[in-house]
Design goal:
Chain lengths: 155, 155
């Protein structure tokens, strides 16, 4: 099955270049951006302002070639891209949880953002702790990996 | 921007019909299924078995027409679909966190599943609490809504 996905808005951030972008928004509380949803979709935002956090689904539009297994920024070992958040993945879909600071019409002001400037938005979902928190979840291979420097040239 | 998304596997569950499907996997710990990733992508699963939970990204292939604002199963009020997890949404992309019970080659045995049988899979990401948990997040309009009965005919 194939489906054509169309952009529903644009994510703006301070990060024009990959090396400037935080590795995960959870570690970048001061990182601010805004999400502009196209006016045709404004009705889909109704009651979104009741949530403190939202999930942005977007396209990695500047990712390199897909490689199924490669190192991330957390260690030097290759990991399957379905076992990491690496952008160079089949279908190139990204997901970030951000704090929703305020809503003005079609514009969502957000923080904790780790997305490149002008990234194509394809969906927004509310972050709902009672659906999305798993108290007993492990961090898998990322456990105890705290490296947050980006080796030059690595995505 | 548009992108053509291609299926990377199939999600199997006990739920052939929408009315049988749990509303959220977090409330259905005994709900078991399996994810079959196409063999071409097996390398992308390397080290996924180190995680207790994964995030499935899939296509709502049997959803009705897109409506930007509509009631969910939690109350009778309309909510914008970007403020709910409703399947009838632009681009029709679904997201579920499931428990990863075991991995056998291209087959992932999972539980806590709330997806229809034979749903087209388009991505898998690891669920990583240190990235994905927001301790101070609100439940928004879903707070204190515990209705889990599905009104007949409503998606």
């Amino acid at each position: 099955m194939k489906r054509t996905i169309t952009q529903i808005g644009i994510i703006y951030s301070p990060y024009a270049e990959k090396q400037d972008c935080p590795i995960q928004g959870a570690f970048a509380p001061e990182s601010r951006g805004r999400v502009e949803v196209y006016p045709a979709f404004v009705k889909a935002l109704a009651t979104i302002d009741t949530f403190s956090h939202i999930i942005l689904i977007y396209l990695f539009d500047r990712a390199g070639a897909v490689e199924l297994s490669r190192p991330t920024f957390l260690d030097e070992e290759p990991h399957g891209v379905f076992a990491s958040r690496h952008p160079c993945r089949p279908n190139g879909i990204g997901m970030s949880i951000v704090r929703l600071d305020s809503v003005q019409g079609c514009v969502l002001h957000v923080s904790e953002i780790d997305v490149l400037d002008r990234t194509p938005l394809i969906d927004i979902k509310p972050y709902v702790p009672k659906f999305d928190f798993r108290a007993d979840a492990s961090n898998g291979w990322t456990d105890n990996k705290d490296t947050v420097t980006k080796p030059p040239g690595r995505e």
